[in-house]
Amino acid sequence: MANAADHRYWATVWRRLKADRKAIACLVMLVGLILAVVAGPSLWSINPEAQFLNQIASSPIGSRTAIVVDANELWTGPDKTPEAGASTARLSVIEANTEFVRLSWRQDTSAKGYQLYRWSEGMNAASLGMPVAVLEAGDSWYEDRLNLRPERYEYTLLAVDELGTERYRQQIRVTPVLAMSEFDAELASIAEGETTIELPAHPLGTDHLGRDMLARLLEGGQVSLFIGIFAPLMYMLFGLAYGATSALIGGRVDAIMMSIVDFVIALPFLLFMILFRVALGTEPGESGIAALVIALIALGWPSPARLVRGEILRLREMPYIEAARLMGAGQRYLILRHLIPNVMGSVLVSFTFAIPSAIFTEAFLSFIGMGVVPPAPSWGSMCNDGISRLLTNPHMMLFPALAISITVLLFNLLGDALRDAMAIRRGAD
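That's the Oligopeptide transport system permease protein OppC sequence above. Prediction below.
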């Protein structure tokens, strides 16, 4: 009869969950998130360690065509030097791409030097722009390699006298073509020997080293979710066995075992995290995933142990347990067929709340450099990389923070739904 009642109870819980649209939506999104994190790295072809140095800290962008140029050697000037003139500089563009912009002008024999400025979108329209170079009177060319992008620039060349006073200026507008150096193309594992290549899309942009944010989010999600699910699963199982053993034995043994629980709860997590790192020989700057998982398991089991002990102490006084004992049921039968199945509901709800807690703990420790550290990605370590560039490149902080927030929120909402659906338990008992 107890088995039939348990079957009806779980059937009722399932019906209530199916009727809760929020719970179903959370479950579907969680399954989709886990599948994306597990299968995503194999489906998204970009290597998370590949560096696109011509797209450092870029915002989300689609695929683009780029030319491959030889940018290893500095330019030594045009093949034919412009003839010296008496009045105007005649500023001209020899070649313009995002690796370099090469400018040339006619020397002015009356000028004692030149000043070169570069103006771009977003600068004050009344200004000449950013100072690029201060040149001598005999110079007639310049190669600009400073942080170029495929956008419109305006170069201004000022000819000055001995006192630095402007004599005249020459301006020219240019839009560099998107380009990639041969070295960068090889570093990003793009086909060699090509003169024109198709740069892959970066739907979430790139980080400060030119690495694809989406690829790193997917790979980092594997680390974060592994720690967030594996560690709670281990300490929940241990806590289940410990709490059940304590409740069933009872007496002085129960008091001693619960004193150990109280002692472990009082231990500081961060201190023991450091001790485990030292014990495992984790050097500064190395990822401490093993130490983090061990610390979570070693210090996380007392809460589920207390929960299970309290549930079993309540359940073993129930009438159907007494009836089973009178009918000759042994201790093992009572544990496996009645006690453990009836506490699994509470354990399951506790497990769904423990996962976001573990994910947040991993993110926090990685953020302060004690968990997963670069170059290995995790959502917490990616937030650590992005916080220093929050004002200039907010996407580097935004996307991993959203991944953590959404995952934690979904697990918490699912835990709330499970708790509400299982609220009928005590009434049924």
